[in-house]
Design a protein that fits this description.
- By secondary structure, the chain is α+β, with helices and mostly antiparallel strands.
- It contains six helices and four strands, in the order H-H-H-H-H-H-E-E-E-E.
- Strands 1-2-3-4 form a four-stranded antiparallel sheet.
- Strand 3 and strand 4 (158-162) form a beta hairpin.
- It starts with 27 loop residues before the first helix and ends with a strand.
- The relative contact order is 0.12.
Length: 164
């Protein structure tokens, strides 16, 4: 019997980088990016907990907020918002409007000329008082621009519109 020739020695396939397992080092850029995102989000969350956004608002801006509430109340006929924007002296005054008087006084101009638009206001805060000049017009009468001067006073932590 003749011997069969032996099978040639198996040849090793050349290394194929696609089939090799990846090292954790390949994910390093993604790990670094993830850690940076976590740190930034934690920093933002911590800063909001330590100093909430309402504490970062300037006094000028707080004054603008209460004046905005006053005009928003007139535009939406929201008597409670109107009343909450007023100082105690105004609310206690015998001339302060009732809900019905407020609605009656604001409904006609609102229906006829549209909402009051306040494109800008000038605010000057001096201690616990602020002088505000409101530049305003109605939606449908943009050519009839007016200005209104308001006094805003600080009562406790809140600013309120006041007659004097």
């Amino acid at each position: 019997m003749s011997a069969k020739p032996a099978d040639p020695a198996p040849q090793d396939d050349p290394p194929n980088p696609e089939h090799e397992p990846r090292s954790w080092r390949a994910a390093l850029p993604f790990i670094i990016a993830f850690v940076l995102i976590v740190v930034v989000v934690a920093w933002i969350a911590l800063s909001h907990l330590v100093r909430p956004s309402e504490e970062r608002v300037s006094e000028d801006t707080k004054v603008q907020y209460v004046v905005n509430d006053l005009y928003s109340a007139r535009n939406s006929l929201n008597y409670d918002l109107y009343r909450s924007a007023q100082c105690e002296a105004n609310v206690a005054s015998k001339d302060f409007p009732t809900a019905a008087q407020f609605a009656e006084a604001n409904r006609g101009p609102l229906e006829r000329d549209g909402k009051v638009v306040v494109p800008e206001m000038d605010v000057e805060v001096t201690g616990s008082r602020a002088a505000v000049t409101v530049h305003e017009h109605r939606e449908n009468t943009e050519d009839k621009k007016t200005t209104t001067d308001l006094i805003v006073v600080k009562q406790g932590d809140d600013w309120k519109v006041c007659a004097s």
